[in-house]
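Marked as duplicate of an earlier ticket. Keeping the data here for the record.
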Amino acid sequence: MTDRLDDAIELLKTPPAVSVEARVMAEIRQMAVPVTARPVRVTRILPWLGLALAAGVAAIFLISTRNAQGPLGESEGMAQFVGQFPGARSVEVVGSFNNWSRGLLHLRDDDHDGIWHAAAVLPAGQHEYMFVIDGERWVTDPLAGRFVDDGFGSGRENSVLIVRPAVQP
């Protein structure tokens, strides 16, 4: 039993030949997702497409190392944010994990295909978040899967992300 656990730990320490991010981004680029002015909820997307997109949007990847920054702490996990925002000039993520402060977590669209992405090490636990498009428009992540009222009586919702610790006690 301990041999299997040791093997699993070693497997987690070894980075995959192709990153999860690269595989998800390649899959998203191959899909013919209609571009809409308004985000589409997961429930309106085919189940397999929703799963593929959700894997890249708010999936939590449990990894044992942070790129050249050392191992993750016991109460930290890795979060991956991906969103499709064609025509956007900038996209960032704000949430309870950064005190809803702008300018701290920017997404990138390196190939200018309208698909923005970023990874972040976050404290373990439940976090609310939103995307901020072009510094003005606050958008709920349509693929988050979980939502809560934003608390302002506006009828709007925040996306919910659950970060699991990378290092299990």
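See parent ticket for discussion. The domain at 2-163 is CATH 2.60.40.10 (Immunoglobulin-like).
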